[in-house]
Amino acid sequence: MKIIIADYIYRDGKFAENLAIAFGTHIEAVDLPEKLLKKYPDAKLIRTKPYTVLFPGFINTHVHLEFSANKTSLKYGTFMPWLDSVIEHRDDLMKDCSNEIMQNECQEMLRSGITAFGAISSFGTELQVCEESPQRVVFFNELIGSNAQYADMLYGDFLERIKASQSCDADSLITPAVAIHSPYSVHPVILQKAVSLAKQNKMPLTTHFLESQAEREWLEKAEGDFKTFFEKFFNTSTPVTTIREFMHAFDTYPTHFVHCVQANDEELAYLAQKGHTVAHCPRSNRYLGCGRLAIEKLRALELPYSVATDGLSSNDSLNIFDEFRSAIMLHHQAPVQELSLRLIKAATEDAAKALGLNSGTLEVGKNADFALVTLPELPKRPEEIALWSILYTRQADAVYIEGEQYV
Ligand code: MCF
Ligand code: FE
């Protein structure tokens, strides 16, 4: 048993003072320090530095580790030229993406306080790195393929990858999961099969959804930049699904919808009504010219969302604090203190719910996953701690997963 004492403990959207946590692999008790010391006299005591804030470990719900070799290969600015550049450079990027590069990125996430992440895997090449990483990993095997002719073959390959992720060691902290790439790239027949598979096996489910204006135009009118793309690469000028049909395919199973920047009010209300959640990737959306997700609308609809980095295919780092700071700039009209608190909740409690993890809050029975952040001086007003944590943190001061210290 260990007991950790920090100046501030983040709970229920507030920063509690004079509290301590007793933990093994899970949180055993949260109480006044003197009470815990009395209750567990043999516990190892961890006293954190002055002005340290204890957060639940942060959860990055959406990252593509396989694209970690990208620096300047992919074209940022507008979605379609980016997608063209993915087709052009994908093979080289995969070849260049060594285990060492991916391990370093897992470390970068860890140092920023990320104790769990959702890895979107196109080929399964990052499975070993994820198994060996200290973090919890929800391993999202990606299904892609819009051409009916190849659909069965692609589904077969997807099932093989699912099986590989199911046979990982229990202490690798891997959860096998399903990712549908997007409405424009997955044939409805295999989409339905994959959703049923996720539901039957109670696996987390995610999908990219309404990321760009071009995607909307293609799905609604079979026009725009995607038309040129599909004619050029796939010899077709008809989308395989409609927005409505695609959304309805997830009706009976809560899913993590990534991006949703171009979703309208009705679609967002529908996602909320069906118990789905959203992943918000502010920098990725900015770099690919997709626009700003109207998080104030999600709030009004009580549609929960996480904050995620996406991959280095559309970002410059996998640091969750870099993402928070960018979110603050992107949503420049939002009250800054309130937004800061909301972002912290998004990357802890709401992210845990979206990925089905027993983490994200500092309650008894939850996983002992912590990120400790040390502020540069005594915060003058405790209600501003969320903002000061976001502005002054590049790396966490200490990180715990399953009660073990890794940073
Ligand atoms: O989330 C970003 C942008 N939207 C869609 N896909 C990806 C992103 N980063 C990487 N990808 C991958 C995706 O998983 O790129 C491929 C898929 O395998 C695009 S489709 C050729
Ligand atoms: Fe993505």
First-to-last CA distance: 19 Å
Helical coverage, percent range: 25-40%
Heteromolecules bound = ligand MCF, fe (iii) ion
The total of beta strands comes to 16
Count of the domains: 2
Mean pLDDT: 98
| Main beta-sheet strand count, sense and barrel state | 8 strands, mixed
**CATH 4th-level superfamily of the largest domain:** Metal-dependent hydrolases
CATH level 3 topology of the largest domain: TIM Barrel
* Tally of individual helices: 15
Compute the gyration radius: what is it?
Answer: 21 Å
Query: Proportion of β residues?
Result: 15-25%
User: Which CATH architecture of the largest domain is right?
Assistant: Alpha-Beta Barrel
Return the structural class. Answer: alpha/beta
In the CATH hierarchy, what is the class of the largest domain?
Alpha Beta
What global shape is seen?
globular
Question: What does this entry show, briefly?
Answer:
By secondary structure, the protein is an alpha/beta fold. 40% of the residues lie in helices and 22% in strands.
